[in-house]
Design brief:
CATH architecture of the largest domain: 3-Layer(aba) Sandwich
Distance between the termini: 58 Å
CATH class of the largest domain: Alpha Beta
InterPro entries: CbiA/CobB_synth, Class_I_gatase-like, CobQ/CobB/MinD/ParA_Nub-bd_dom, GATase_3, P-loop_NTPase
CATH superfamily of the largest domain: P-loop containing nucleotide triphosphate hydrolases
Helix content: 25-40%
Structural class: alpha/beta
Number of helices: 14
Shape: globular
Cofactor: Mg(2+)
Largest sheet: 7 strands, parallel
Radius of gyration: 23 Å
Domain CobQ/CobB/MinD/ParA nucleotide binding: 3-196
Number of domains: 2
Site (Increases nucleophilicity of active site Cys): 442
Catalytic activity: cob(II)yrinate + 2 L-glutamine + 2 ATP + 2 H2O = cob(II)yrinate a,c diamide + 2 L-glutamate + 2 ADP + 2 phosphate + 2 H(+)
Strand content: 25-35%
Number of strands: 23
CATH topology of the largest domain: Rossmann fold
Length: 471
């Protein structure tokens, strides 16, 4: 089996509890495969830093219910333990049309939905900092709301004192619900955050010390005798399925793709990178911040999201790379740029203090930071044939950014809608014929293998055309 760590709402300490469990398990010598519900990039970075294994996102909106089950079954089998961190509150989701949300359709893609899909027990984290007797009403409500969800026990977080804990235990006694962990208010474990959530792992100099403190917390604050049997990944009822890739697609011939990965660009789904490699790509990781030039002999480029606005001054000073990227795209190199990557390809980035930094300049507009957060799942309808999709194709993605473009494309990639209704969100994305896909919308390719296939095929075509020109 595996275990789902859920919260009664956002901000109750799910990530701290999850990281403490992961760190303690790794200290014990176990290999742990972690998963994250939803489209998040940053929490999985912390999981991977602790476990040494890439965390896998479980998101039926970006992929499908079948893919979620397949992904979980495939990756949990190689590890001794498996742990799933939820998203927001246990039942917070969207309206959906899946096969497993008939009782509460508004919980599609929620932590509860994933727990039902995978038939996993849930540990509920409750923020007790302003609670005493009311904790029992909260726990009872969560246990009774959906009978398909098995609440294996509770973690009481931010407990203030022994007296406070005694009141909580007395209130919960009638529910006969196991208390699997008690965490006191922590002042010595702090992970900094900024405008899009936690600061990524690559920017935290004291992270090893934080992980050690999390492991100490995990060692002392949980009922391991009860937890370990629940965390045993080999007890899962899900059977490993053959992947869609291995059964229906063969690898294409090798191409070299430059993947920007450093402190400015680090938002990638590991499944996307895996698919590129399985389809025949050699991924060459490089840094637009630190490297003096593009990697040699590449046939494609991939710029993920991240925080280019935070490192704009350093990016703008690397003029050789800015010019090399622009030249490569002008010469037809197939290029994907998502969110932060889109911003990098603009003429300028304007930061929160209205300072302006020149960027690549292939997209004729500026990316301007502002306080308004654009957030949510999107249904995007392709308006024309592009690097990744044909005109008329519906794809599903996720937006999460605090920047906006000062001008819209005359040939946008998509017309976009909210995922769970028909509200039109306008036109989005920039498309240079054949070779550039630049968009704020993050895509997971797990259930859409035709997207990376198409990208690699375009990279192969570019290599052949470039070779013909050179000869």
């Amino acid at each position: 089996m595996a275990l789902v760590i859920a919260g009664e709402r956002s901000g109750v300490g799910k990530t701290t509890v999850t990281l403490a469990l992961l760190a303690s398990l790794c200290r014990r010598g176990g290999q742990v495969q972690s998963f994250k519900v939803g489209p998040d990039y940053i929490d999985p970075m912390f999981h991977q830093y602790v476990t040494g294994l890439a965390c896998r996102n479980l998101d039926p909106v970006l992929t499908s219910e079948a893919y979620v089950q397949q992904c979980f079954a495939k990756h949990r089998q190689a590890s001794e333990y498996a742990l799933v961190e939820g998203v927001m509150g246990l039942f917070d989701g969207v309206m959906g049309s899946g096969t497993d949300d008939s009782q509460h359709p508004f919980t599609f893609a929620s932590t509860a939905h994933i727990a039902r899909l995978l038939d996993l027990p849930v540990v509920l984290v409750i923020d007790c900092s302003r609670l005493s007797g009311s904790v029992a009403a909260i726990a009872h409500g969560y246990c009774s709301f959906d009978p398909k969800i098995k609440i294996a026990g509770l973690v009481l977080n931010r407990v203030g004192s022994d007296r406070h804990l005694s009141l909580l235990k007395d209130a919960l006694q009638s529910l006969q619900l196991p208390i699997l962990g008690v965490l006191r208010r922590q002042d010595n474990i702090t992970i900094p955050d900024r405008h899009l959530g936690l600061v990524p792992t690559g920017e935290i100099s004291e992270l090893d010390a934080v992980v050690e403190r999390l492991a100490d917390l995990g060692d002392t604050c949980f009922d391991w005798q009860s937890l370990l049997p629940l965390l045993d990944s080999q007890n899962s009822k899900l059977k490993t399925q053959n992947s869609k890739l291995s059964t229906q697609h063969s690898a294409l011939s090798k191409v070299r793709i430059a993947v920007a990965r450093d402190r400015a660009f680090n938002f990638y789904y590991q499944d996307n990178l895996d698919l590129l490699q399985q389809l025949g790509a050699e991924l060459v990781f490089w840094s637009p911040l630190a490297d003096a030039e593009l990697p040699p002999n590449i046939q494609g480029m991939y710029f993920g999201g991240g925080f280019p606005e935070v490192f704009a001054e350093q990016l703008t000073k690397n003029t050789n790379v800015l010019q090399a990227v622009k030249t490569a795209i002008i010469q037809g190199m197939p290029t994907i740029a998502e969110c932060g990557g889109l911003m990098y390809l603009c003429e300028k980035i304007i930061d929160f203090e209205s300072k302006t930094y020149p960027m690549v300049g292939i997209i004729p507009t500026s990316a301007c930071m502002d306080k308004r957060l654009t957030l949510g799942y999107r249904r995007a309808v392709a308006l024309q044939d592009s690097l990744l999709v044909n005109a008329g194709t519906n794809i599903y993605g996720h937006e999460f950014h605090r920047s906006s473009l000062r001008a819209n494309s005359h040939q946008p990639l998509f017309e976009t809608y909210r995922y769970d209704c028909d509200e039109n969100m306008g036109f989005e994305g920039w498309n240079l014929p054949i070779n550039l896909h630049a968009s704020y919308i993050h895509l997971h390719w797990g259930a859409s293998i035709e997207i990376p296939q198409r990208f690699i095929q375009q990279c192969q075509s570019h290599r052949m055309c470039y070779s013909n020109v050179m000869t």
